[in-house]
Design goal:
The complex is a heterotrimer. In chain A, helix 2 (48-67) packs parallel to helix 11 (319-338), helix 3 runs parallel beside helix 4 (112-125) and helix 11 (319-338) crosses helix 12 (343-350). In chain A, 39% of the residues lie in helices and 19% in strands. Chain A has helices at residues 3-25, 48-67, 87-100, 112-125, 155-163, 181-196, 217-226, 241-253, 270-273, 297-309, 319-338, 343-350, 406-409, and strands at 34-40, 75-81, 105-108, 129-131, 144-146, 172-178, 204-209, 233-238, 263-265, 285-288, 354-356, 362-365, 371-373, 376-380, 386-391, 396-397, 412-414, 421-424. In chain A, 63% of the residues are buried. Chain B folds into 2 domains: 2-115, no CATH class; 247-376 and 391-545, no CATH class. Chain B is built from 20 helices and 7 strands. In chain B, the strands form 2 sheets. In chain B, strands 4-3-2-1-5 form a 5-stranded antiparallel sheet. The radius of gyration of chain B is 31 Å and the shape is globular. By secondary structure, chain C is mostly helical. Chain C has 15 helices and 4 strands. Chain C has helices at residues 12-18, 21-42, 54-80, 87-106, 119-123, 139-163, 168-187, 213-239, 241-251, 253-259, 263-289, 299-312, 318-337, 342-356, 360-376; strands at residues 199-200, 204-205, 208-209, 291-292. A two-stranded antiparallel sheet of chain C has the order 1-4. A two-stranded antiparallel ribbon of chain C has the order 2-3. The chains are: A alpha/beta, B alpha+beta, C mainly alpha. Chains in contact: A-B, A-C, B-C. At the A-B interface, helix 2, strand 7, helix 7, helix 8 and strand 15 of A face helix 4, helix 9, helix 10, helix 13 and helix 14 of B.
Chain lengths: 429, 546, 391
Amino acid sequence: MNKFKKMANRLSATALICAGALGFGMQAQAAEDTIKIGVLHSLSGTMAISESTLKDTVLMLVDDLNKKGGLLGKKVEAVVVDPASNWPLFAEKARELIEVEKVDVVFGCWTSVSRKSVLPVFEELNSMLFYPVQYEGEESSRNVFYTGAAPNQQAIPAVEYLMSEEGGSVERWILAGTDYVYPRTTNKILKAFLKSKGVKDEDIMINYTPFGHSDWQTIVSDIKKFGSAGKKTAVVSTINGDANVPFYKELGNQGVSSSDIPVIAFSVGEEELAGLDTKPLVGHLAAWNYFMSVESAENEAFIDKWQAFTKDEDRVTNDPMEATYIGFNMWVQAVKQAGTTDVDAVRQAMYGQEFKNLTGGTAVMNTNHHLSKPVLIGEIQDDGQLETVWSTDGLVKGDAWSDFIPESKVLTANWTYPYVCGGCQQPMF
Amino acid sequence: MRFWNKSLLLAGLLLFGLSQLVAAETVMDLTKSLSVKSYSKKSVIIQKIAQTGDPQATVILQSLLDGSLFLTKDAGLPVLAAKLGKEYALSDPFTGVDLGQVRKRALKKIRINNKVRGILKASIARLNLSHPNPRHRIKAAKLLFKNLDKALLAPLQQLVEAENEGAVKEAFETTNAALILLHGDTIDARLKAVERLKAAGGPDVRALLSSMDRKLQAKASSDEQSEKLQLVVQSALKSVERQLENYGLIESLFQGISLSSVLLLAAIGLAITFGVMGVINMAHGEMVMIGAYTTYVIQEICRTSFPGFFDYSLILAIPMAFIVSGICGVIIERSVIRFLYGRPLETLLATWGISLLLQQLVRTIFGATNKEVGSPEWLSGAWEVTAGLSFTYNRIAIIFFALFVLAGLMLVLKKTLFGLQMRAVTQNRQMARSMGIKSARIDAMTFGLGSGVAGMAGVALSQVDNVSPNLGQAYIIDSFMVVVFGGVGNLWGTLVGASSLGIVNKFLEPYSGAVLAKIFVLVAIILFIQKRPRGLFALKGRSVEG
Amino acid sequence: MKNKNNKALGPFFSLITDLPGGGKAFMGILLAVALYTVIGNTLIPESSFAHVPTYMVTLMGKYLCYALLALSVDLIWGYCGILSLGHGAFFSLGGYAMGMYLMRQIGDRGVYGNPELPDFMVFLNWQELPWYWSGFDNFFVAALMVMLVPGLLAFVFGWFAFRSRVTGVYFSIITQAMTYALLLAFFRNDMGFGGNNGLTDFKDLLGFDLRSDGMRLGLFVGSAVAVALGYLICAFITRSKFGRVLIAIRDAESRTRFTGYRVEFYKLSVFVISAVLAGIAGAFYVPQVGIINPSEFSPANSIEVVIWVAVGGRGTLWGAVLGAVLVNWGKSYFTGAFPEAWLYLLGGLFVCTTLFLPKGIVGTVPEWWAKIKLRLGRFKPDLIQTGKGDM
């Protein structure tokens, strides 16, 4: 053995490990006169398609707030990290944001699994997460505010609409989804709901596909086949992000028109449609709490601001952006009300917080950490927009525990006295 | 007498003009009243418009269906609007007169929903039943098959008799038969109608027959006649279903071939860079992605600068994608891979790094969101062989395109000097060099060729999949499977590998679901490799051991 | 790498004293870092610069798990020339086995309060635990499974593959197919492993709260010990006669076979050992990151492991550890510091490593060092021996 090689070996190793250790130590020190907020959205990997938009949304809102003089007399600073669509990395980055960067609140996550991954971190460190995406429910954490839709704010009204005369009196249902927890839950709830409305088992078809499924020929053929039984048929799609484009392309090419078999989707918004030629898809539906096409002064201002911020006149807005917008502004109001960014104080101030929806009306934060919001059903237009064809009269309160699942029916989420729990059968006090 | 004649003519003209005026006013008024919110009221108005029989009704209804009919916010006048940059160009729906441009917020779109859309389509179809173009008449008849209205019974009967064109007559008769089955009076006519429908076949007939079957079953009091009808309906239904099942098999086969062609396209570039050159090219998927983005850029340029050329943008994109991806390939080869020959596993690491770089580069330039690549008119829709059996045009095109690329590549390899030199270099570099072949240049060109072919695949994939930075990642594993299964270094192997994997996958899918089918295929590949450790078409000879 | 007498069969400590210089240094550094982390976390007050926050402890524990995984890959790739692009599968299976134990430990503290079934099963209307979950409430059964399941899979897979002499790229691609098939299978909710969400919301391990600082530290120390033991095992194997045969197989497989060695047996044994090590790494990984889900099976992860080994230096064992820690630390740091540009840095690192550090850091840096010395003309080094052979 060569002496020098040995020495070099040791030296190089020591140097490298020391360098690594130093890097750890050199984490930035939080400045005193700023309020830090964390942004935990994937900027690379498979989810970047959806999530990077929300990062920009938060940055725009922070920018806007700072122009108006900041919060509590301090500047607000957004700390952006990239969890790279990697679920364990989400947990690591969440911990980094809270422990190292000392942020007061985090806006982030898209997929359910990423939320599940960071949940223990937020609960352990008692921090606050605003989760802006429609999701499956069955959860209410003390440390998370869910500003997207729960199943009763999206799926159930959508199916009710299709069952109505106006929606086409649908009698036969195809529940098609990506095989993960959100579609599974939604379909379970929908199946129970449909059965309670007298739909028979033979009139319900459930189909699951893997993530990023790109060859939809067989399934679209199956849909056509199932739909030719002489009853009005509709597809309820919980197909996730990426797989939608090839799905809709195949629908269009195989000539499944909305007047024959309408497809109602819960994960397809303006952003997804922007990647598609929507002419063959006119009339297919989506259920959300927000559409870009809704005419209101707030919405017009928001769209203008967004397009100016991204310097892109064709940039679209979507529902999770509105959810982020409402969540952010409610948090700002709550901080102002509490006079501090302390998590416990802000949480108390959040309850009953009101903020104007972009679609008109006012969203209210409930004690189960879910919003009350209107539900809109829209049809796809040839310009890639969704036009409202139906909306609820008033606000629908987000329900953490579905009434259509026996195990969760008995549970209550209420974080105020006397319940103080995210899922319990009796009050805790 | 003459005067009399003249005045008659005049009066006639006057009367005609007057009626025209009245009609126009009515359509106009009706159109104005479309501003109501309720969709059921809109439906009623639409039916009224259709009943006026006014030629302008078709224009109004069609533009309503197309979503180009607006009301001005101030005066509530109906206008046709087309987007022109940030503003909308207006024209009068009745006269076609240009009305200038306004901002979107000055207009109110007349919204329709699916139900209204159905009624609109049916109304237009009724008006189109006497359209001069036979293809429109057939389309109208087929559409009306799904909207069987009792009121149509008598007029359609007349039309059937008056029709001369064979294909149109057939379509009319089928729709007529459906009407008779539903609303006919005599049992004989209804039985005959069932026979007629059975002969026509297809999913729509199946839908009609099975709903008829249910209706007959639900009927409390059944007499002999309706029992007989039910029997006939049931047997017809069975025969239609059998026929559809057979079509289903053909369709599965087509889908299998189509999936194979996608796999083949995705893998064929890799068959060059990995199969022939031995570079474990993890950046192959990104070459496909670059091809897809090139398509997007070309289409955007066409859309903004040469709108008339849009339908042919894909054709232009094919060579452009080849060039762009090819150049990327050459750059990668010259800057990285040429240092790594003989160390195949290091090419894996380097190309993996390159793939990350390229993905992020595309994300930085184009953003992380999906990009829209439209389908030209000639690739949209499906070729309907017969009722219930149709093949989508874009899939057909991809199948032919894949074969075309394969054939082209074979020709290059077998029939050109470059192909000869390329084979020489990959088989024995030293020998080739001593024969005066510039091996470095050949390497670069080979890698460029493989990458360019991957780019062309990107053009095709942009028609069926997302155009996003992740596009390549979705295909890289499948591509490797195809190449390895087929046997490294053999294009025939790639063809056979792709087609067997695709077809097996599609035949398994209906039974096992998409996920399990894929797992089965993967396990089958693993087992197959045990049997033939070097793939389906293994190279033989001394070079194999190297 | 060296010509010292091989005392591989000697007592345990002689193994340590016999380690090559780099190995000793590595063990020293590992010990020092582990000790410092423990002391820095518990004894040094939080206000001090030298304090190691718990966050860092878990992070380093995670790196160590990756390091063990990298070691297992280096053992077969660096010493036997078997390139597995599916080692993430063994890692994940070990992780799932541990995850299943942790799931069972939740008991009735899940949201639906079912004492028998994990939440996701209640939710999917499962009436009873599937058979393959039985026994996982016992830690020792689970610990056995952590090793047994990956080992068994490796045995079956390797037995088929090596017997039919699937080598080189073909082997790499079918390992990739294996992990990809497992990825798809575990994504299925019907499999009973929680589908896409995987297993999460763990509460405690052996009765200790997973969130407590003590448990964190314990897991970190456990991981460090596992890496040290794993390293020793690998060192022992590679320096024994068995290891010599492995190297012979790497460099000239056919020739070794013709010499009379049963190549399949050697390959299979080392493949199984490596899979077991990977499984153990996964078992330590899961309680520290708090989640195991199918994306760990993704072929990209397995490729990354190979890259760590390549960056550190193939066939050097501790180079693999170094590569794993370095790349992952870089990932942690850059995703926070340069969220928009970190992929450029990472991709660039991989390209540069292969171009400028063909033998990895451990293999190349000393060479440079020696060259510099040579330039300076003060020393006359021996010929620098380098490992050879591809695949």
